[in-house]
Specification:
This protein is of the alpha/beta class and 326 residues long. The protein folds into three domains: 3-83, Winged helix-like DNA-binding domain superfamily/Winged helix DNA-binding domain (Arc Repressor Mutant, subunit A), CATH 1.10.10.10; 87-160 and 272-310 and 321-325, Periplasmic binding protein-like II (D-Maltodextrin-Binding Protein, domain 2, 3-Layer(aba) Sandwich), CATH 3.40.190; 167-259, D-Maltodextrin-Binding Protein, domain 2 (3-Layer(aba) Sandwich), CATH 3.40.190.10. The protein has 13 helices and 14 strands. It has a five-stranded mixed beta sheet, with helices on both faces. A five-stranded mixed beta sheet has the order 9-8-10-7-11, sandwiched between helices. Strands 1-2 form a two-stranded antiparallel sheet. A hairpin with a 2-residue loop joins strand 1 (48-51) and strand 2 (54-58). Helix 1 crosses helix 2, helix 1 (3-15) crosses helix 3 and helix 2 (18-24) packs across helix 3 (29-43).
């Protein structure tokens, strides 16, 4: 077994396509197929399910083998990064898995500051939902995730709470909820609601609060993109429950932001890393700009051990509002 075979399995499992995986690895399809066949012969098990020579999934044994191979591939990359850290210059690339909300509303100033300080480091944003972002970290396809957590977190990753994200309700100007009276769940439940889809923790928290009050809100639309949600609010489709960090007072002048912190607990913005992963100087520097209150030594301990009191970290995390921490 060799590293080329391991890379081949990981690439095919990720794309479920021999041709696409071969292109990503700069290999011929025949060469990649040969690597897979030799590996399966050596293991004595079939890794991939095939239909008419097309890969359609993984066998149960293949699922177990893939987990190990992904871990090996990540460890090899960590070893290579350790070697590159002997250089006095901070160079390379940081792949960041995050959602549109944070890529659009929280990260721009951080990325600008990081780029000014470390011009030799490229930043690559991978935008997706929280589940896929965490999966990307687990596979080693990204170095850092910046997300609110999905309902279930893989054992292979570590989530470090960085900021509390207060929630608000967004309504068009002139909407009955903008009359200045105190917002209640009962009042809010009378109107169509736009919010995040199921994989987002924000959706779960919102629905739990309504259910606890014996209310069944009418969700008319769900969107991963907060800007899309605000566009639908502007069209009069309903009101949106969003993180306050997703509201731009200049760009969103046609909307009214109503405080909702008394109705819904804040979300938590987490920094997600692969457990026992190696944090390059570039990654540590990026974290120091994004969340300067997180001490490097504490961050390294959390990533290396995989154990931390997340509840305590979340409670101690500062509030992020209107683009600034306080």
């Amino acid at each position: 077994m060799n590293l080329q075979q391991i890379d081949a399995v990981c690439a095919v499992a990720r794309q479920l396509s021999i041709s696409s995986a071969a292109d990503s690895l700069n290999m011929s399809q025949s060469g990649l197929s040969r690597q897979l066949k030799e590996l399966e012969l050596e293991l004595g098990v079939q890794v991939f399910l095939r239909t008419r020579n097309k890969v359609v999934g993984l066998t149960p044994q293949g699922v177990q083998a893939l987990r190990i191979m992904q871990r090996v591939a990540c460890d090899i990359k960590a070893l290579q990064q350790i070697g590159s850290e002997t250089s006095t210059d901070t160079v390379g690339e940081i792949r960041i898995a995050t959602t549109h909300v944070y890529a659009r509303h929280i990260l721009p100033k951080v990325i600008k500051a990081f780029g000014d300080r470390f011009p030799a480091v490229a930043l690559a944003l991978q935008q997706s939902d929280p589940v896929r972002c965490c999966e990307s970290i687990s596979r080693g396809d990204a170095e850092i995730g910046i997300v609110t957590l999905p309902d279930k977190l893989a054992d292979s990753v570590v989530a470090v709470p960085a900021y509390q994200l207060p929630r608000c309700v967004i309504a068009p100007r002139g909407h009955p909820l903008t009359d200045g009276k105190k917002l209640t769940l009962a009042r809010l439940a009378k109107y169509p609601i736009i919010t995040y889809p199921a994989p987002f923790s924000g959706r779960t928290i919102v629905m739990e609060r309504f259910a606890a009050a014996g209310l069944a809100p009418r969700i008319v639309c769900s969107a991963t993109d907060a800007d899309v949600s605000k566009a639908y609010v502007e069209l009069g489709m309903g009101v949106a429950i969003l993180a306050k960090a997703a509201v731009d007072k200049v760009r969103d002048r046609g909307l009214v932001m109503i405080e909702a912190g008394h109705l819904f607990p804040p979300g938590v913005l987490n920094l997600v890393f692969r457990k026992n992963g190696f944090l390059t100087r570039a990654v540590q520097s990026f974290v120091s700009i994004l969340a300067p209150h997180i001490k490097p030594a504490a961050l390294l301990r959390a990533v290396e051990s995989g154990h931390m009191d997340r509840a305590a970290w979340a409670q101690a995390a500062p509030v992020y509002e209107a683009g600034t921490a306080k």
